[in-house]
What does this fold into?
Amino acid sequence: MKPAAIPFNRPTIVSRELHYMSRAILAGHASGDGPFSAQCQELLQSLTGARHVLLTPSCTDALEMCALLLDLQPGDEVIMPSFSFVSTANAFVLHGAKPVFVDVRPDTFNLDESLVPAAISPRTRAIVAVHYGGIACDLDALLSIARAHSLVLIEDNAHGLLGTYRGRPLGSFGDMATLSFHETKNFTCGEGGALLLNHNRLLERAEILRDKGTNRKRFFRGQVDKYSWVDLGSSFALADLLAAFLLAQLESRDLVQARRQTIWDSYRSHLQPWAEHQGIILPTIPNNCDPAWHLFYLVLPSLQARSRFIAHLRTRDILAVFHYQPLHDSEMAHTLGLPNQPDLPQTRRAADCLVRLPFFTDMTEDELDRVIEACLSFTL
Ligand SMILES: Cc1ncc(COP(=O)(O)O)c(C=O)c1O
It folds into this structure.
């Protein structure tokens, strides 16, 4: 009998998700900011070291909240990598910023800190650092650039919950940071996210923005006698029903991360000699980083080689997928009339040559062996 296909991702129920969800329903609080949200936020705060954590319906929403907290004025610019998900740019454009795209480093595909100073103008307000695959950007360099130019540093940490830089958790470095709990992530509730704030002064406005522009939070705390419309805002709170699911996932973090690290290490040790022989590059982990074990990728020498590799795995019913297409050369970038940039070579290389292998928490040994075997049988 033909073995079952191996998907790129398979969301995993790890422990008490369904039990907690039924408790949320029975407790009669399924909407935002219930007891499960409070527990998740407290746990995330202790795991990341962030001052404040607010759950959101997605990382995209958390990024939009960052944009609103920046209070952007027309013409304001935000620096970000071109090799990222659409939301990294869209969230800021939606709230009035002009994105300024910078190339990524050839080793980690993170924002190339050496190119950031030249991208700064009098209109720059913020730098968005994406920790690609949950491996940290050079945060020492980015923080010192941000400080020297009075810019806000935002960590788009969609991939990197529990990753660290110099032993400190990602999400605790920027003025603000975001997380994703989309079903492709290590910890999920289907769709979900969080906004991390590292300044007390940002909290009150963030609470209002998240609560449809009202001061309802202050009302619930007894600080005002009624709540009303006081600012911009939207519906940026995660349903407690989903926070219940998420809490169970977060409580199982040691199990999840240990399994994911084993899969990552297994890919690395089995594929290294083959990759070296073929001129294929495996992920680099800089010395001062502990990864979040979010994804495992290969960098092939060309687009054509990558297409052949993906097709080769597909003949074995294995789904390997490429990642972001360059934002600076997207249809939307052209629609926005952004100045034509010379091509960004490492962004182009990542878009054309990088491929992600199947990687999910409940991947079986048999599935892992099949993917490794399929890779090893590929020659350029
Ligand atoms: C770097 C990055 N930022 C933001 C997002 C958006 O996350 P979400 O789907 O939770 O909105 C993603 C999605 O995968 C991403 O890769």
Summary: The domain at 253-376 is CATH 3.90.1150.10 (Aspartate Aminotransferase, domain 1). The two ends are 30 Å apart (CA to CA).
